[in-house]
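INPUT
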Amino acid sequence: MGYENVLWKLQGDKVLESINAGKRLDARKFDEYRKIEIRKDISHLAEATTQVKLGNTEVICGIKLEIGVPYPDSPEEGSMSTSVELLPLASPEFESGPPSENAIEIGRVVDRSIREGGCLDFKDLFVEEGKSWIAFIDFYPINYDGNLFDACSIAGMSALLNAKIPKLEDGVIVRGEWKGKLKLKNHAVLNSFAKIGNSIVADPSIAEEKALTSRIHISFNSDGNLNAFQKGGPGSLTANELDQAIDTGLKNSKHLIKIIEESSE
Amino acid sequence: MKEKEAEYVNREGKRLDGRKVNELRAIKIEVGVIPSAAGSCYLEWGYNKVIAAVQGPREVLPRHMADPYKAIIRYTYRMATFSVSERKNPKPGKRDIEISMVSAKALEKAAFLEKFPNTAIDVFVQVLDSNAGTRIAALTAASVAMADAGIPMKDLVSGTAVGRAGGKLMIDLTKEEEDAPDAVDAALAILPNSEEIVLLQMDGIISPKEWREALKMGIEGSKKVYEFQKEALKKKYSGDK
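OUTPUT
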């Protein structure tokens, strides 16, 4: 065990002790998020870019639209693709190389939240026979301090709200010109929880992630419906604990979606 | 050709974006922007936006890469998929790898690596937005991040592009100027105090005489960049905030 792991183990023990005594180390309530800040327009060449700070966790999301070929099973629809790259610049824990399984999990869960939340109007992304738009939604963590899932989800949703569709001339993209805004049908956001001891806490910090036995990510859309689940970590959850997370998430997601919507005005 | 020349620098000596031939685009530098890194720097240079982080000195893995006499520098230059017109494939290409290599060598000369034998200093630079000159913007930010990480250095690394468009020599070329039919574009980085050249890459055809003049302009420009770097570091470390 490297010394860094030993330090995290000690920190994790402290988190557990504190949570068992009814307190979080950073003094938040169990259902409380860290402060959220959203900035727009980082790159002038992207269809949208947002920078999200969730406490000290920071993520940049950029959207590019490219012309592609529709999938054979949906010949009159566009598509979307997400990627998360855990840049080693964001944490001493991240390494260079092909996407790790953690990066892939975050990308896929955020993808599910957007896709199953019915956010994109794939029919609107259809151009003509054999041609449709692919929305590439790419995430770059800049600083890792816990809960990259929700930080990416907030960044992705707010970028989608700001995204423009490039202008096409004779089937060729005119770079730097846009024909209008990307059409959205719904808004969705992830709510992540950590189970530490027998408690469920929202928006886990990095120290809390080191102490958790399991995590649960739930996506809610604007209608207040659930649209994606992901259980992670080696531990288990009871039906009661899941209910508790859903109730808290329902309340928090309204607040998160409001912050996202306000940021795009 | 005469008409083309008038396009890049007008009669008043102004370029397409209103700059003089020896004028840099607007530069903004912020030190210590990534809490989990040993040192970090955010830099805006015209439309270019880059963020740099230094991790280490730390254990070298795999171990056989370690140098028993000094620290090794590993430099990773990457462009975000959305930082260019057409979405960039997230996989690193030959360009990323070459830029990373020559930039690592440039930083090597600036630091007292012998202080940290058997370790690695990992430098990561991510380009978030671009308009010509990203490798120098990245290197400029990286050297500030290294200073922020507390690594002993004999100098910062400062640089600028220098070249020619429409028959006129100029520094810090934009994308538009780089695309001029007679363009010469050289990326230059120096140790500003000794004026030693630590990075030089050029594309284009130029006479030796013209080049000597261009280099002089480049060194002068790099020294202006150095002032911005120093200011940013002072802002974080001088105490009187």
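end of record. Helices of chain B lie at 2-8, 94-108, 134-148, 175-178, 208-237.
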